[in-house]
Amino acid sequence: MAAASSATAIPSLDKVDFLKLQNGSDIRGVAVSGVEGEPVSLTEPVTEAIAAGFAAWLLDKKKVDASRKLRVSIGHDSRISAQKLQDAVSRGIASAGLDVVQYGLASTPAMFNSTLTEDEAILCPADGAIMITASHLPYNRNGFKFFTNDGGLGKNDIKDILERAASIYSNFLAKGYSVKASESVKKIDYMAVYTSDLVKAVRKAAGNIEKPLEGFHIVVDAGNGAGGFFAAKVLEPLGAITSGSQFLEPDGMFPNHIPNPEDKAAMKAITQAVLDNKANLGIIFDTDVDRSAAVDSTGRELNRNRLIALMSAIVLEEHPGTTIVTDSVTSDGLTSFIEKKLGGKHHRFKRGYKNVIDEAIRLNSIGEESHLAIETSGHGALKENHWLDDGAYLMVKLLNKLASARASGKGVGSKVLTDLVEGLEEPAIAVELRLKINQNHPDLKGRSFREYGEAVLQHLGNSIASNPKLQKAPVNYEGVRVSGFGGWFLLRLSLHDPVLPLNIEAPSHEDAVKLGLEVAAAVKEFQALDTSALDKFVQP
Q1: Contact, 44 vs 10, CB < 8 A?
Q2: Would you place residue 4 in the very low, low, confident or very high pLDDT band (cuts 50, 70, 90)?
Q3: Within 10 A of 483 (CB to CB), how many other CB atoms are there?
Q4: Is the dihedral of CA 42, 44, 50, 51 positive or negative?
Q5: What is the domain class of 18-188 according to CATH?
Q6: What is the mean pLDDT of the chain?
Q7: What is the SS3 assignment for 216?
Q8: Domain range list for the chain
Q9: What is the DSSP string of 100-137?
Q10: Are domains 18-188 and 429-538 of this chain identical in fold?
């Protein structure tokens, strides 16, 4: 293909602070103009430089000899900027001399999977994989997740890639930038391979029955993200009826609801679909299918703590006594369910799906067996599935349970799942209030928002220590977690933003207010902290 470069194809280049695009172990930015106050940060040249930075990082990591060309698979979700960014990523990878394999519309878990599949006919395994997604963020955003066969890249790797990208981009600034068509691009339908593996997993768990879900009515809500494949490519081959499934078509404007299993409107939509269609089960995915949740036939939501309890029950049947690693905002009721009812161990760690997964891997490495790492957000990863946080695989574990119940003559309802979470104590009140730090307030006295937030937490911890009504959690990895008045609260610093989220759970509104008042009294002297959400909550 001839290299195309013309005056019209040369975008103007602005100076860019690449490190500001880091969002933990992902890269995120604005890819579409039109929202006031949100200028485009993921331009084509920026994207190309990031992809070239990943290629350089991968070449260093893999250290292959010159006789073998590395290859990188690229997939995207349903966002409207997907095609433009896929082209720019392809150019960046190809410019470094690597082979590009485009998958088109794909899920994040499938991209990681492509680094593990061994089948030269479909150009697998990929040495590296890039997923173009910004999860459930608004339509104008986009971003990148990166994988090798070791799993998703961590924060330090992302920083390294962005530093390399900054240097490549400064080269563009110095020498000029032109759009050159990529020559070494191949296209593969990898999702067909990935979905067929999911189908095989359910058949195998059911004793190699061809249609183990025959008679089940299961509705899927993909929220117009990338998860629409699950109805026709996974459930139907297994014999399930999927009529009433909704929002399966990819639409990057997300016209129906945010594709997010934590979003109230999204959960209401799938619950309504289950009830309207008298379905046995409802399944909902986020945009890029690395998170999921379910709804039983009565319309009961199986997300957040309930989903963790359900997955824990399934995993602890298979691996008695194993450790379940979760994020920090899980409930006390979940701990007692995992430890007293199921006989497992609950290891409550930090927020951030990568933190939770890495902690489970670390525990295994020091001899403490863990088979499940799962966040309240719906990110869940199993040891048996290479510690990949795969929303579709989590749902396959639920389907396996349904299929085996049917095979043993227990019918086709979702009661088998609901029964597994019987005995989970749930709080009457559960709220999350966000206390923002005003970074321009003089009370910061030159400190970063992170240092200021740490000072708030330190002060809260000290004031709790002298309060006989409250008890600090004996083991805690994030923020200040305290029990009292029959409930608990956790104040922590957000992973990325100048915000201190406060979670409160209690047996009554009155008890929740008492916990809130304790926090309000302890933090009132911090003038840069906007406590309006908390003040409103505790008002009589």
Answers
A1: no
A2: very low
A3: 15
A4: positive
A5: alpha beta
A6: 94
A7: coil
A8: 18-188, 193-421, 429-538
A9: EEEEEE--HHHHHHTTT--BGGGTBS-SEEEEE--TTS
A10: no
Residue with tokens 């396996």: 400
Q: How far is CA 72 from the centre of its chain?
A: 22
Measured over the CA atoms of residue 432, residue 262, residue 47 and residue 389, the dihedral's sign is: positive
Q: How do strand 345-348 and strand 323-326 relate by DSSP bridges?
A: parallel
pLDDT digits 0-9 by tens, 405-446: 888 888 778 999 999 999 999 999 999 999 999 999 999 999
The phi, psi pair for 471, rounded to 5°, reads: -135, 125
Tell me the pairing of strands 292-296 and 301-302: antiparallel
pLDDT of residue 29: 97
Could you read off the pLDDT of 194-224 as tens digits, one per residue? 999 999 999 998 999 999 999 999 999 999 9
Determine the 3-state secondary structure of 146 from DSSP. Answer: strand
Give the domain 429-538 fold.
Answer: TATA-Binding Protein (3.30.310)
φ/ψ of 457, rounded to 5, equals -65, -40
Using CA atoms, how far apart are residues 52 and 93, in angstroms rounded to an integer?
Answer: 5
Q: What is the domain class of 193-421 according to CATH?
A: alpha beta
SS (HEC) of 262-282: CCHHHHHHHHHHHHHCCCCEE
> Is residue 187 within a helix (H) or strand (E), and if so which, with residue range?
strand 185-187
Cα–Cα nearest to 376, from 330, 309, 339, 316 = 330
Overall pTM surpassing 0.90 (yes/no)? yes
| β-strand partners of 484 | 487
235-292: pLDDT as tens digits: 999 999 999 999 999 999 999 999 999 999 999 999 999 999 999 999 999 999 999 9
Assign 65 a pLDDT band (cuts: 50, 70, 90). Answer: confident
Q: Tell me, what's the pLDDT at 174?
A: 87
Which residue in 420, 105, 417, 376 sits closest to 274, CA to CA?
417
